[in-house]
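Exam revision sheet. Question 4 asks you to relate a sequence to its structure. Input first:
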Amino acid sequence: MTDTADLRPDRLLSVRDTFGIDSDLQVPAFSERDAHVPGIDSVYRFQSDVTLAILAGFMRDRRVMVQGLHGTGKSTHIEQVAARLNWPCVRLNLDGHISRPDLVGKDAVVLRGGQQVTEFQEGIVPWALQRPVALIFDEYDAGRPDVMFVIQRILERDGQFTLMDQNRVLRPHPFLRLFATANTVGLGNLNGLYHGAQRLNHAQIDRWNIVASLDYLPPEEELAIVQARVPSLANDAGTVLIRAMVAVADLTRKGFAAGDLSTLMSPRTVITWAENVEIFKDPTQAFRLSFVNKCDEAERPLVAEYFQRCFDLELKESHQLCPP
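Answer key, C-alpha cells:
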C-alpha cells in the first residue's frame, strides 16, 4: 500500500465472518496491507460489545474511547480490529512528556543542496489527518491538559486543523479514524491506582461519540489466552494449574473492588506468572516474583490467603505443580 491521500477502502467485510459476532453489519476494509497495519494476533479474544463499538468508529467515523482497568487489552483491541481490516494504525502514547510541538510540528534545521535551511516538520497529528489511518491516543488521561487542547478541534464533526506556523488549514482525510484509551475517563486518579492520570476538560470528553467499557474476560476465556501464550501449559496438568492461577487473579480483582487491596492482577500479570512458571518450574516462586513482591507488605498476608484458597498450599512452600 502506498502512502497517499488517495487511498480508500476497497471492499466490505462481514462482521460475522471476520469477528465471529452475530451481526449482519459489513465494515469497509483495505485489500492490501502497508507498514502501518498491525500484525494479526491469531489468539486474541474479542469482546463483542467493545468490538462493535470500535467497528462503528471505522464504519461511521465515530470518535471511540475505550475505558477500562490496566491489562484488559484496550489498545490491543483497537489494533486487532484494524489488523483484520488492513487499516493503517498509529498508536500515540500520551505521557507527561508529550508536548504541543510533538503533536503539531516544529521548525527544524535541515540540509538542502549543501546549505542549512529552516523548514517546518509536521507532527503526528497533521501527518495522520492527511491519511487514511486509525490514530489511537493511548493513555488519553495521562496527557497534559494544556496539550490536550491541541486535539480538541479535530474531535469535532468537520475536524479541521489550523497550522498557525504555516497559515494552513488541514481538512481531515475522509477515512481518518480517531480512537482513545483511558483508565479513568478523565476523572483523575480517584482510587490511587493510576498516578499521573489527569482530570480532563469535560467539554473535550463530550466530543467522544462512543465510550466503551472493556472488562476482564470470563475465567475460561482468560485460561485459553494464557495457554495460547504459554503452549507448554496447554495440557491437562497445565489447565489445572492455570485455572487456579486465574482464580487467584479473580480474587485480587474482587479484593481491589472491595477496597481490601490497592493493586490487582491483570491478565497480563497472569501471563507473566505462567511464563515465569516455565522458567522456575515452581508456581509459588513464580507468583512471588510476578505479583507478590509488587504488593504492599501489609497486604501480602491477604494475597497469601488468596493463593492458599486456590492452590491449597501455603505461599511459603515450594511445590512442583507444573507439568514437566
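Marking note for examiners. The longest strand covers residues 105-112.
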